[in-house]
Amino acid sequence: MSARSRVHADSRPLIGLLAGVTLGASALSQLLGARGRFVVPVALAVLGVSVVLVGAAAAWSSPWLLVAASITAGAGQGIAFRQVFNEVAGRVEAARHAQVISTVYVITYLGSAVPVIGLGLAVSSLGLQAAVVGFTILCGVAALALAVLSLRSALRA
Fold first, then answer.
1. How do the domains of the chain map onto residue ranges?
2. CA-based nearest residue to 54, from 157, 149, 129
3. Which of 30, 70, 83, 131 has its Cβ near the most Cβ atoms within 10 Å?
């Protein structure tokens, strides 16, 4: 059985469902009332490890690991986003609130779109599996680096 058939990489509805599961986990995790100075570093670490595991699941042809890692990546992203968003929103003066919140959303959307466009370009030159594994490693390392930076900040607070 090939890797493609085990994880059904050619099924667009299944790929869409997996993306929806990740986004759903992100949205649902934002409803949690996670608090504390270590929430962001832990959530970013969960995101980083989970994203690397998404790439590993693809390389190892493991659909269960792919689903589990996608859910935990979504949860890590959602918790970190909510905490940072609330912190930024709470520090902005009322006169600039709409401007700053709009800017945060634009940066968030660009931060989501630009890497995916880069992944699409990488697929055309590296192939699907190499591009996905490289993308997940790059994103995982970036999230882990942000986790370290936010941990340092939390320890100083």
1. 3-156
2. 129
3. 70
